[in-house]
Amino acid sequence: MKMTKIEWVMQQVQELINQKQLAEGGRVPSVRQFSLQLGCSVSTVVEAYARLVSTGILESRIGAGYYVCKASTAGALLAEHAIEYSREVDPLWISRQSLDAHDHMLKPGCGWLPKEWMPELTLRKALKMAAKSDSSFLLDYSTPHGHIDLRRYIGRKREVYDVTLNLKQIFICDSATHAIDLIFRHLLKAGDTILIDDPCYFNFRALIKAHGLNYIAVPYGKNGPDVNAFKQALQFQPKLYLTNSGIHNPTGAALSMQTAFEIAKLAEQNSLTIVEDDIFAEFEYLHAPRYLTLLGLKQVIQIGSFTKTLSAAVRCGYIIGQESLIDQLIDLNIATHFNTSHLNAEIIYQALMDSSYSRHIEWVKKQLQRHMTDTVKKLAMLGIQPAVMPKAGIFLWCQLPSNIDAAELSKSCLAKGIILAPGNSFSQAQNAGQFMRFNVAQCINKKVFDVLQQSLNELQIQDSV
């Protein structure tokens, strides 16, 4: 990005410090003197000096000007240290490695698109639009239900599933994770039992542990959950079933209509609440069945966010449910969180309204389709095969060669700059030790496959010794 004048002035001061032309504790040129020296306005230098004070590089002394801060132990706290990657594989292993990783690390195991694929210009335009919006978005708390126009948009998007909503059935929260946390807090208590898929999104497991819940893991295949296993699990009277709708994480599978109908029928007979996470809906070409369509709001709560298609930095999610449930969740949110970000919701809304957003989604879907095919071919050359061939989305759930443990392969690749997603991070039964989730959008770099090949060879040699 092009550097602003203020940033350029800040850089000039930093270079003078680095070159020892400005000593620690020494006075820097006056605002007027430096503006003449650099050929810029006084106001630009004033703002640059103010920012340098905020970052702890300069200090302002009333009536005496600006001085270079002395080195202190506080500065040591800002120093970047090497990250230790020795943590044992658990449900949060992938997230911690991916979020902690330096830019040079490749992340075929993470659950998001490369930043180069995200609609940066659309977001920047949305930021400008939000800045020009009503001052309430910048200064006030949001209304309890959240951004009204964003709720209208979410309601319109549900019409494709033959679902008609009113605005009081939609609540804007901070993320899909925030949504699940609120639902768990409201509907469950420690020791309650719920149903989840096996494998399932690893953060579901982390949230379950955080809330002290028990769970029953239902095997999930290419058409959805195993119906017989689901039926057997109902004898333990679970309080709810948490699952992905649309594209499943981590398998990439899509729920079939027959399986959806049978699970919905069992849920209805047993008054079981289904919480379906719809976060990957935009990546679908053909929409898979939704439990919300089959059962309605009486038994289904649908959640989602805009993290995967717009921005992970601008956190914004939603909950769809009965009016009475939404009211209760709002009360709980006020008690524990007080409010959600009105500004984030406005930024997301402005981005969604931009004509470039729909073109961005179509571009992403085509890229994913191309790289899905390419990644399958390259993995096959290493003896790694997909257990399910996804119809859309970013994930491949693959089986490794028979003598390879996914956790060991992940640790070996991690030491070489590649972050993978070992199967047992997603499996409650811990029977996915030979499976791996790959993000095809993050598998473009040839190094991913070179490192995989090298690590596979090393592990196979160790196994033969």
Describe this structure in words.
The protein is globular. It is built from 18 helices and 14 strands. The longest helix is centred in the C-terminal third of the chain and has 26 residues, at 355-380. It is an alpha/beta fold. The strands form three sheets. Strands 3-10-9-8-7-4-5-6 form an eight-stranded mixed sheet, sandwiched between helices.
- Mean pLDDT score, rounded? 90
Number of E-type strands: 14
Low-pLDDT stretches are 72-86
Total helical elements = 18
End-to-end distance, in Å? 53 Å
Shape: globular
Question: What structural class do helix, strand and pairing data support?
Answer: alpha/beta
Radius of gyration using CA atoms only: 26 Å
How large is the share of residues in beta strands? 5-15%
Helix content: 40-55%
Largest sheet: 8 strands, mixed
| Largest sheet strand order | 3-10-9-8-7-4-5-6
Short description:
This protein is α/β, with parallel strands linked by helices and 465 residues long. 43% of the residues lie in helices and 13% in strands. It has 18 helices and 14 strands.
Topology diagram in text:
Blueprint: H1 5-18, H2 31-38, H3 42-54, E1 58-61, E2 65-68, H4 73-78, H5 93-100, H6 120-132, H7 136-139, H8 148-157, E3 170-173, H9 176-187, E4 193-198, H10 202-210, E5 214-221, E6 224-225, H11 227-233, E7 240-244, H12 257-269, E8 273-277, H13 291-295, E9 300-305, E10 317-320, H14 323-336, H15 342-353, H16 355-380, E11 385-386, E12 395-399, H17 406-414, E13 421-422, E14 435-439, H18 446-464
Parallel strand pairs: 4-5, 4-7, 7-8, 8-9
Antiparallel strand pairs: 1-2, 3-10, 5-6, 9-10, 11-12, 12-14, 13-14
Helix pairs in contact: 1-3, 2-3, 6-15, 9-14, 17-18
